[in-house]
Amino acid sequence: MVKEPRPGRVKTRLGRDIGMVSSAAWFRRQSAALLHRIRDPRWHLVLAVSPDREGQLSRVWPGDLPRIPQGHGNLGDRMGRIMRNLPPGPACIIGADIPGIQTRHIADAFKALGAHEAVFGPANDGGYWLVGMKRAAPSSPSFLQNVRWSTEHALQDSLNTLPGRRVTTVATLSDVDTVTDLLALRHTTSASQSS
């Protein structure tokens, strides 16, 4: 899932700390690096874009990747709709603001769907960077509803929308929502490069 990287439209919490232009520029660079990194012949990569029309026509995203609109509603509405409208078979949705995602993380999620109906990739802040389903989204209207998005409760609330389902988790990764997250990322990156 990607948003058009326009100032004031994307990464607004980060933008309050570093400026809207800088946060949009960071998201654009991050998204481009992620899309380059996760291309893999083991899966079909599709961009779920927002806003719908602008994202479909955008020159920001690689022209060879198919695009689908996210549509209206909150994050749960949009992810549920995307899952329901995908072809049958396992599917995973990831966010574009998680610098640590590698192909092995996505492969682990698809592998987990062999024995489970759903998989989540937790984020350190209580949310998640990935949601995957073995077949299609549950037809239940409660799937990903009443979730307290952008809080430490998002993952648990989302898990609660799948009662009685075999659900598992994969690696916990960090997303970037605030300047504190960005500084932690830079510190981690600097430490790993100097080792």
Write up this protein.
The longest helix has 19 residues, at 20-38. Strands 4-6-5-7 form a four-stranded mixed β-sheet. A three-stranded parallel β-sheet has the order 1-2-3. The chain has 195 residues and is an alpha/beta fold. It has helices at residues 12-18, 20-38, 52-57, 75-85, 103-112, 154-159, 179-194; strands at residues 2-3, 47-50, 67-69, 91-94, 118-122, 128-133, 167-169. β5 and β6 (128-133) form a beta hairpin. The protein has seven helices and seven strands; from the N terminus they run βααβαβαβαββαβα. The chain is globular, with a radius of gyration of 16 Å.
* SS field, number of helical segments: 7
Mean pLDDT score: 93
Broad shape? globular
> In CATH terms, what is the fold-level topology?
Spore Coat Polysaccharide Biosynthesis Protein SpsA, Chain A
Number of domains: 1
In the sheet with the most strands, the strands line up as: 4-6-5-7
Give the full name of the CATH homologous superfamily.
Answer: Spore Coat Polysaccharide Biosynthesis Protein SpsA, Chain A
Unreliable parts: none
Strand content: 5-15%
How many β-strands, per DSSP? 7
